[in-house]
Amino acid sequence: MRFISFVLPLLLVLSFSTNSVAANHPFSDVRDDFWAKDEINYLYQNGIIKGYEDGTFRPNHTVTRAQAAIMIAGALELDLENRPAPPFVDIPEDNLDYDVIAALADEGIITGRDGEFMPNAPLNRGQMAVIFERAFQLEGHSDQDFSDIREDHVFYDEIQALAANNIAKGYAEDNTYRPNDSMSRAQFSAFLARVLDDSFQPVNGELEIHHLNVGQGDSTLILTPNGKTILIDAGTQSAGQKVVNYLKQAGVSSIDKLIITHAHADHIGGAVEVMRNFDVSLVLDNGIPHTSQTYLNYLTYIDDHDIPFEVAAIGDSINLDPALTIQIVNSGIPGDLLNDASVALHLTHNEFTYLITGDAEEKAEHRIVEQFQVESDVLRVGHHGSRTSTTPYFIKNVLPKVAIVSYGEGNRYGHPHPEVLELLTAVGVERIYGTAGGDVVLVSNGEDFEVLGGNLIRDNTSNPPPEDGVMYPININTADLETLQHITGVGPTIAQRIIDYRTTHGSFTSIEEIKNVSGIGDVSFERMKDEITVG
């Protein structure tokens, strides 16, 4: 029996590598958890894409100009008959894609360069903007200014049209568009699906990170701006039902990624109960086995129910939502103890950053800051606030404004340790929250953030005196840039967007109209509605 308890984890882990693709999936290499699965399926069902003869789509391969042309022609349902010869010396009549390229050239959608179409060359993001603008007659200018696209850029108008129509929003981490970057077949498919069906377009709501009060354990729920769901850890076995109830009350119906940082029972114990109650598209963990019965139950449930499983790799990204960049900054490597093998994630939502490290201790913390830039607005403090984590070298590289500690009231370990709280205070952390006083919810619009609930362990800020001359409610039709920033959740960027919106659309006719301003969603509006008026 003892021998089986050691061998079974290895057998189960090996079996996960052969998890089959869902039977109703048109392509063998596009799994249920693939970020662009729905868009690719939509194009397939509408006859716009067919894939390869071997049943694959090869979503991560670079899309060529010819492949893009075929998809555009299919989306437009162009008549390919009796078109004039295309003006490209590299597209002879015996070219397999001759009719498609001739039709697009005849429609003025593609022009080539120096008399060549270059069918096998990669299509870049700038060229994609031009083709989409011509093919679908896109118009408009966005209030989003990409840092690498000046007004004199050759593709400025086309890229602005894409952004205005919510087709492409650029890269969240640095607000760039990267017009010279090539595109994968999946990326092109996602953009094309957004043009054809606006249900695929980014919602760009607010990011919510819920730190659940599960006692001496860990469970963190991430609700992304575009409606994806990530659950990081599930607390102890006794907390499993509490996690399930919380998720249901939060409106969660399925989980896109269940991430288990490591195999200790206070992180993994409730996972089976979660999987019993929700469809899980993918389980991700560090791949380091454990001998506990709790861990064996977890592996067995995944295997018995054919839940897709992957091992987290340091440096990989979790591509679930275009509004977020989520990078895996730690996972298990040979020689790690379980805590140091914790999966750690660094999340970026426009200007907002967040770091969560499981129970990673000094060795892993050093590894993280040596390999990655992890300065963050908010830190989910490692190992429940134990002195074995949150080391000086680490915290001086993270420099959070806010720290959140998950621990149980009166726990036998004395978490959080006083020296950790002192260190956090010494490096300038403004507020430290704990889950022992209730769930801690973090809400961000990508620029500002707010922490709700929980137990405020330490408040290291001084309360400034009220500003003279600021009268509430603030008139959003007449307030200047500085005055607008006295509204809850409004910083300089959103204040300027409010002014730009007034300039473009005229006066606000209701306070609810402010939700049309980029960066203000339902949660932000609820917090500010009593502070604003339209006159």
UniProtKB/TrEMBL annotation:
GO biological process, one term: DNA repair
Keyword Zinc on entry: no
Alphabetically ordered keywords of this record: Signal
Domain SLH: 23-86, 87-141, 142-206
Signal peptide coordinates: 1-22
GO molecular function, one term: DNA binding
SMART domains attached to this UniProt entry: HhH1, Lactamase_B
Superkingdom field: Bacteria
PROSITE patterns named among the record's database cross-references: SLH
Protein's name in the database: S-layer homology domain-containing protein
Lineage: Bacteria, Bacillati, Bacillota, Bacilli, Bacillales
